[in-house]
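Whiteboard transcription, Tuesday session. T.W. wrote the C-alpha cells on the left side:
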C-alpha cells in the first residue's frame, strides 16, 4: 500500500453503474448519453448564436440554422474518426500498427480529444467551403458550443472511473475502484470545470459582451488557446497513460506535448481575426437564400 493511504481520509467514490439500463444485449452507457447530450445542447446553442442578428455584422450570420442542422452528421463523423485516429497515432501506435484490425474497434475504448478536435476542424473547413462562408466563423460557433460536450464527457469519465488523477492528500481526493488503494485527484472533474464550464463562460462573455463573433476566428482562437492552457494545467494532476508514462522527468506528459502547439495556434487565431471577412465567394442566389430564411 502507498505510504499516503493509511494517513488520508478520502471521499467515497459514488456507486454509479456506468450502464444506465440494458435491454437484452443492448446497454445504454452514461458515456454515450454524455456524448448525445453534449451534441444536442451544443447544436441548440449554435443555432441560437446563428439566429441572433445583433451578434454579427450588419448582414447577419454567415451560416443559417439549417446549415448547422446539416453539419451535425459531419461533426459526428469528424469527432469519431479524428478521435480514434488520434488515439491510434498519438497514444498507442505500436500496438495498432501490429494489430490493424483493432483500429476500428472504438467500442473497446481509446479516443483522443486532440484527434477529435482536428477531425471536427477538418469537417468544419470542408462543410463551410461547400456552403461558401468562412470556416473561421464556423469554428467560432462550433468551438463555444463544444464546451457542453466536453463538460458532460468529463463527468462520464468520472462515473466510469477512468482518466483519474495522481495520488494526493487533498481532502477532496477519491479512491477510485480501479485506481488502487491510494486517494487520487478527481482530475476528470477539474477538466470538466476548466475545459467545459469556465472556458464556456469566458467565451460567452467575449461573444455577448464584446461582440467577438463579428471578427471571424477570434472565438475559435480563444477556444484553442483556452483549452490548451486548461489541459496543460490539468495534466499536472492527471495520471499519465500507463503505457506511455512521463515523457520527461516526473511531469511532462503526452497531453502537455499535444496542447503546447494550441497556445501558438490560438494566439495567432485571435491576433489575425480583425482582418478576416465572414464570407468567401457569395452569389446572388446565396444572398436570396439567406434573406428569405426565417428562423423558427
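and on the right, the sequence the group agreed on:
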Amino acid at each position: 500500500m502507498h505510504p499516503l493511504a493509511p494517513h488520508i481520509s478520502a471521499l467515497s467514490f459514488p456507486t454509479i453503474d456506468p450502464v444506465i439500463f440494458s435491454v437484452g444485449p443492448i446497454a445504454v452507457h452514461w458515456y454515450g448519453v454524455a456524448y448525445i447530450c453534449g451534441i444536442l445542447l451544443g447544436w441548440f446553442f449554435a443555432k441560437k448564436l446563428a439566429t441572433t442578428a445583433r451578434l454579427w455584422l450588419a448582414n447577419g450570420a454567415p451560416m443559417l440554422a439549417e446549415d448547422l442542422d446539416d453539419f451535425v452528421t459531419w461533426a459526428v463523423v469528424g469527432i469519431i474518426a479524428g478521435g480514434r485516429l488520434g488515439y491510434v497515432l498519438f497514444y498507442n501506435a505500436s500496438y495498432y500498427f501490429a494489430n490493424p484490425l483493432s483500429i476500428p474497434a472504438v467500442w473497446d475504448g481509446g479516443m483522443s480529444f486532440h484527434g477529435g478536435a482536428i477531425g471536427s476542424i477538418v469537417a468544419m473547413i470542408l462543410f463551410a467551403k461547400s456552403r461558401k462562408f468562412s470556416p473561421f466563423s464556423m469554428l467560432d460557433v462550433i468551438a463555444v458550443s463544444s464546451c457542453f460536450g466536453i463538460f458532460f464527457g468529463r463527468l462520464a469519465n468520472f462515473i466510469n472511473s477512468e482518466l483519474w488523477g495522481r495520488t494526493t492528500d487533498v481532502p477532496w481526493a477519491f479512491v477510485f475502484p480501479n485506481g488502487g488503494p491510494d486517494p487520487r485527484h478527481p482530475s476528470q472533474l477539474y477538466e470538466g470545470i476548466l475545459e467545459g464550464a469556465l472556458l464556456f463562460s469566458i467565451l460567452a462573455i467575449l461573444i455577448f459582451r464584446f461582440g467577438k463573433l463579428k471578427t471571424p476566428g477570434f472565438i475559435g482562437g480563444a477556444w484553442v488557446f483556452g483549452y490548451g492552457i486548461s489541459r496543460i494545467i490539468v495534466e499536472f494532476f492527471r495520471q499519465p497513460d500507463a503505457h506511455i508514462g512521463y515523457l520527461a522527468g516526473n511531469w511532462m506528459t503526452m497531453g502537455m506535448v499535444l496542447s503546447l502547439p494550441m497556445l501558438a495556434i490560438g494566439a495567432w487565431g485571435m491576433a489575425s481575426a480583425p482582418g478576416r471577412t465572414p464570407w468567401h465567394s457569395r452569389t446572388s442566389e446565396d444572398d436570396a437564400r439567406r434573406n428569405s430564411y426565417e428562423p423558427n
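Someone added at the bottom: Strands lie at 19-23, 26-29.
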